[in-house]
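Researcher: Going back to the complex we discussed earlier. I've cleaned up the inputs and rechecked each line, so this should be the final set. Can you rerun the prediction on the complete assembly and write out the structure?
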Amino acid sequence: DGGITQSPKYLFRKEGQNVTLSCEQNLNHDAMYWYRQDPGQGLRLIYYSQIVNDFQKGDIAEGYSVSREKKESFPLTVTSAQKNPTAFYLCASRPQQVMAQPQHFGDGTRLSIL
Amino acid sequence: DQQVKQNSPSLSVQEGRISILNCDYTNSMFDYFLWYKKYPAEGPTFLISISSIKDKNEDGRFTVFLNKSAKHLSLHIVPSQPGDSAVYFCAAGAGGTSYGKLTFGQGTILTVHP
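Model: Rerun complete. Updated structure for the full complex:
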């Protein structure tokens, strides 16, 4: 059963801590994306990756970092530099080779500050 | 600068009637458009898409209309069912070197009353 797995579903962070959100996909998709959703707002792109060992900043990359060491995995680190990290984080993937293919999403991680 | 806008935060419809969700965009480079449905605490699910070379695409109860001159698209759901109650996001993408990046609207909460 192919899909995108995000873990944990809920995450709490203390002030000044870095936390890492996991995203794993077994869809054999090349491209992966991280979005942030705030109440009443749409999804905003944080980082994206087209291929292993390569990634680009999205619209709101400040305070976040990513890595793409394996095709299946695209973890997102929320650093202490991110001043307003409380949000719902969504990971997505799509096959890169085919244009205009929809992105497929995981079920998200809700991050809260203690 | 919001390039994709959903001006109606919410819509309430009676079961069996038509639901019409609207979306406006400003970027002329967008050449494909998608609608996603999202339940609370879950990731968005792809519903239907349309390429800029078409003005209509139909899939079962869902039809998307695109008016390029007005930079406007709409999603029609007929007949509406209580299970359709969710947040609906429109998204737009540009081909070429956009790497599948999508720009999302703020979402419209659809409530279908039995």
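Model: Worth noting: The interface with chain B takes residues 4, 6, 9, 31, 33, 35, 40-45, 48, 50, 56, 58, 90, 92, 94, 96, 99-108, 110 of chain A (CB under 8 Å).
Researcher: Good, that matches what I expected from the previous run.
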